[in-house]
Amino acid sequence: MTSLVRTLVVAALAVVAALIAQVNEGRVVFFLPPWRIDVSFNLFIVLAGVLAYAIYLGGRLLQKFADFPGRVRAYRQRREESGAQRALRDSLRALFEGRFARAERSARVALEVPGMAGLAAMLGARAAHRLQQFPRRDDWLRRADEEADVAVARLVAGAEMWIESRDNERALEAIDRLQGSGARHIHAMRIAMTARLQAGQNEEVIRSVRALEKHRAIHAAAALRFKRAAYVGLLAARRGDGMLVESAWRDIPEEDRRDPVLALEAARLLNAAGRASTAAAALEAALEEHWDGRLLDEYGATPAAARSQLERAEAWLARHPGDPALLRCLGTICLRSQLWGKARSYLEESLRQDPDSPATRLVAARLFEALGDEPTAAHHFRVAAVNAAGGPAHREAGVALDPVAAANGLRPTLRGRAL
Q1: How far apart are CA 244 and CA 203, in angstroms?
Q2: Are 105 and 123 in contact (CB under 8 A)?
Q3: CB contact at 8 A, 120 and 108
Q4: Residues 6+ positions from 94 with CB-CB distance below 8 Å
Q5: Helix (H) or strand (E) holding 27
Q6: pLDDT tens for residues 313-370?
């Protein structure tokens, strides 16, 4: 339809031009002494149009000749950019596939194109890092440092890779350069937090975690792990001085002190530093929130006021009757207090609830050592070792220690002992 309309318009214009040419009787005279040329005005118009078109074609041809070198250069540049983009895609795909050597080779191809050099250097650095070729990785990063368009990416990626290779000083230097620009970079804060934790800058780690929690930029589980590690590091750094360890523990916020893992580590450090009462209080507070057998074992081994510990543990027993870990804890406290009968009673009940517990067997062995019954103590040591190492076969191994008991279908005994 469009072609038909265009044809009709052209035909109409031709008809109009023919009608005008019929009524136009003008002439154009050219004097070129001694010659004179007379042409009709219609012919002059046609010749002028043809001449103008020829001049236009000539100008276009000259322009194409003048632009030919530039067009060749542009064609070559487009071909190089296309090859570099293809090499970048291959490098990225190989990096995700775990083919790091191929990724590095493809990145080296793309490195020759100025517009792609920065990204290619970053991909090459990441591939070399995965190959554990750290000098070559640093060479790639230095090459990326020459490209202004990847300056931030180079700092962030470099810091991540240096953290993985435990080069915390360089990682923190990169983060400081990044944060020195005044921009707030949440991911950089996470990287710096890991580097500071590895470098032992525990107070900085705690401040960073609180800042990220304020902006909801870190998962609660990850924040707990970082805070836990930082607090343990702070306590461990003061392990030589009981007063400093206790002071550092009291400086920790109360809600964090109830974390069972942190309370357990702190109790061990406090016990080693001679601050048993503080260790016992820490374990008691944690047990009120989290019932954990490891806390009970450490509580039983804490050399604090045995009477107070015994009263607290017996109160727990009313809430957790038959808990083997709690019964073992009570037996350990009684053992420390030389309450042999009560210790034996609690340990017997614990073994009735969990006869396979190596920890309870070890406490029973210590009890019989204190009573001077070395054969029974040795028996419990053997059963504890078999239970700890034998897995599902420990029952048969334990029965084999006492053939008479095995024949009667009873638990292993020695000299009529119930344990």
Answers
A1: 15
A2: no
A3: yes
A4: 100, 102, 103, 106, 127
A5: strand 27-32
A6: 999 998 989 899 999 999 999 998 888 999 999 999 999 998 888 999 999 999 999 8
Tokens of 369: 């050592």
**Cβ neighbourhood burial of 29 (10 Å; 0-12, 13-18, 19+):** exposed
Domain residue limits, the chain: 328-419
Number of residues written out for the chain? 419
Cβ pair 367, 384 in contact under 8 A: no
Query: Do residues 266 and 238 make contact, with C-beta atoms less than 8 angstroms apart?
Result: no
Other beta carbons less than 10 A from residue 324's beta carbon: 21
- Look up residue 199 and give its two tokens: 């470098």
Structure tokens at 94: 């190989």
User: Residue 27 in contact with residue 40, Cβ under 8 Å?
Assistant: yes
Q: 88-132 pLDDT, tens per residue?
A: 899 999 999 999 999 999 998 888 777 788 889 999 999 999 999
The answer to whether residues 91 and 103 touch, using CB atoms and an 8 Å cutoff, is: yes
Nearest Cα to Cα of residue 199 among 178, 170, 161? 170
The two tokens of residue 360 are 């309870």
* Residue 26: DSSP 8-state: -
Amino acid, res. 262? L
Select from 360, 356, 325, 357 the least CA-distant residue to 344.
Answer: 360
